[in-house]
Amino acid sequence: MTPLSSIDCADRVAQVSSLWTPGGEHPVGDGDDDHDDPDELDELDELDELDDDRLAEAAAEMAEVRRQLAQVPAVQVVANHIMGLYELGAIHLSQSPPQFSEATLAIDAMAAVIDGLKGRLGDLEPTLKDALAQIRLAFVQLKAATAAE
């Protein structure tokens, strides 16, 4: 089996024009290192101002988080992400009007993970399948109710 770290998929990854972060949308450059945006320069200056002690502290915190995550069985982390997709679908269905195309993507992603890992999700598999059935049912009922209006 080939380790994931040795797979080169750069030629299969789509180019993007921006990157979303909690701090906002940021344009993605064409690979050059020119930083013409003044706001971007300010952010870079702030990074330069981080002292070695703060950087070492952040690295230590990250190492601790990674250590803790390594202690959690992967099936629990995967199940948590699957339920995150469930929540995402539910959020889009709860909008007024419901955002069916967005909900469809989240529900389909949830199904793809569950179906793709069939038999490997342990005791959590029946619960995850039930959650998928519930969100699908909610989708169909909401779609029918919206069409009747």
Give a concise summary.
The protein has 149 residues and is mainly alpha-helical. The chain has helices spanning 38-49, 52-70, 74-93, 100-116, 125-148; strands at 18-21, 24-27.
Offer a few descriptive terms.
two-stranded antiparallel ribbon, single chain, 149 residues
Structure write-up:
It is a single chain. The chain has 149 residues and is mainly alpha-helical. It has two domains: 35-71; 74-148. 62% of the residues lie in helices and 5% in strands. The protein contains five helices and two strands; from the N terminus they run E-E-H-H-H-H-H. The chain has helices spanning 38-49, 52-70, 74-93, 100-116, 125-148; strands at 18-21, 24-27. The protein has a two-stranded antiparallel ribbon. Strand 1 (18-21) and strand 2 (24-27) form a beta hairpin. Helix 4 (100-116) runs antiparallel to helix 5. Mean pLDDT is 81; it is low at 1-16.
Total of DSSP H or I helical runs spanning 4+ residues:
5
The profile of the biggest β sheet is: 2 strands, antiparallel
Distance between the termini: 53 Å
* Oligomerization status of the protein chains: single chain
Indicate the topology:
Layout: E1 18-21, E2 24-27, H1 38-49, H2 52-70, H3 74-93, H4 100-116, H5 125-148
Antiparallel strand pairs: 1-2
Helix pairs in contact: 3-4, 3-5, 4-5
